[in-house]
Amino acid sequence: MDLEARIAAAVAEESSWTGPPEGLADVRLIDDQVLDSQSLFTLVTRLEAEFGISVPDDELLPDHFETIATIAELVRAKGGS
Amino acid sequence: MNFEWSQDQQDFRESVRGFAERLDARPTPDGFDRDAWSACGEFGIQGLVVPEEHGGSAAGALTAAAALEALGQGWRNTGALFSLNAQMWAVQHPIARFGSDEQKARYLPGLCHGTLVGAHGASEPEAGSDVFGLRTTAKADGDDWVLSGSKTFCSNGPVADVYVILASTDPGRGSFGLSAFLVDRDTPGLVAGPPMLKAGLPGSPIGDVHLDDCRVPGSAMLGRKGAGMALFTSAMEWERSLILAPVVGAMARHLDQCVEFAKERRQFGQPIGAFQAVAHRIAQMRLRLDAGRLLLQRAAWLLDEGRPATAEGSMAKLFVSEAYLQSSLDAVQVHGGAGFLEDTGLASSVADALAARLYSGTSEMQMNVIARQLGL
User: N or C: which end of chain B has fewer CB within 10 A?
Assistant: First the structure.
């Protein structure tokens, strides 16, 4: 499973999303209210554990969580795999 | 692992303790001691973790924890201690972390040196624990922003010179649409309410702040648009880790008072400390003190290491606040009737401890944070 697919699976499980993870590819996670503050914190905890990265609180910026692709960029930038 | 303080840290802690004992113990009648505030600034308390180029000493979170503990041990103005921490972690930290060079230069030296007082406006009448549900808005108007809404339980609000105001710049994006603004007290449209009458923390004025079409320039935005949640959570990570450092100092002072009293006070022909009912109560106080101090210092160490301390900060906040309440009750009980007298400072600490379980997130919210990190 590639990075985007693993992230989509995590988002699907930790958010209000009820469809299959593949359906998240083109979804605006914030604008479409898939993520809120509570699910974001849960998601970040999971990303940190699953990809061995650290996302400090001051990086909880909307830009990083707009789409599956932007989250993947964040994870890659932090050396996650 | 090394549990020893460096000689420099020990010396500094002793100097803070000496400074604290020279301060007036009691809050001023009007509730806020500006002279003490300035003295703390001149000594270097507010600037403990602020970079040197902005007026601080960049001593680090762990050293700050030790210094604030010493301050709390030597100074009984619990309200002022709370006010200092409210500014340090929820005003100075966000400015230092998220502010522009201009904002840092404009505000941090005054905040560090005690010539300015800062307040953080996040909580609202309908947004307490659910702080991201706040309703204050900031609407763009040309290059300006126009803020409207009401804040409540704003620590230092009645006396602050500058406010960090959390507002929604994009209500449709929920917590991701929050932004922060630096608003000066004299900005038209900002009205700071009078101090609330509280059961504890005398010396720390807390009140409402109303924003009625309060216009600020674009340069007043603190951090980027939409960075409000990141700013708030970062501030809370530091605040929850460190805000109770003075309380650890107070608990140490109470322990010393209890040990001394238990040795001197005689009943039934012997010191009351010879009775296990008393001695065990004091032993439990010692246990809570050490456990709380270690939790707090671990959180501070993580902050210094640049590692996440969200859950660890919440653990420190949760444990120390609950321990403070139980140990304050125990201290009163050990002293008997004398514990109810104002001079001992013990009964009033019960009310302060109740507040400690509420501010910076209730004990229940701290447990939510801890559980969340466990994947629950």
Answer: N
